[in-house]
């Protein structure tokens, strides 16, 4: 039996081939009862922001409050 991640229900994103990444990040979010940190790193243009946008949207759709911040140099 496959367990459905509530943060991914209804996700329709243009992230082709990123299902595994979406599941990993949303899984991290569903297991942060005691806090945690997540660092996404990679070359420019690989889709880090798109991945976070998709997970944030699905979290909001599931009723979770999402707070986002961006840093600049």
TrEMBL record:
**Residue limits of the Orc1-like AAA ATPase domain?**
14-70
Please give the Gene3D superfamilies that the UniProt record associates with this protein: P-loop containing nucleotide triphosphate hydrolases
* Alphabetical list of Pfam families matching this protein: AAA_16 (PF13191)
Top-level lineage group = Bacteria
Q: Specify the protein name.
A: Orc1-like AAA ATPase domain-containing protein
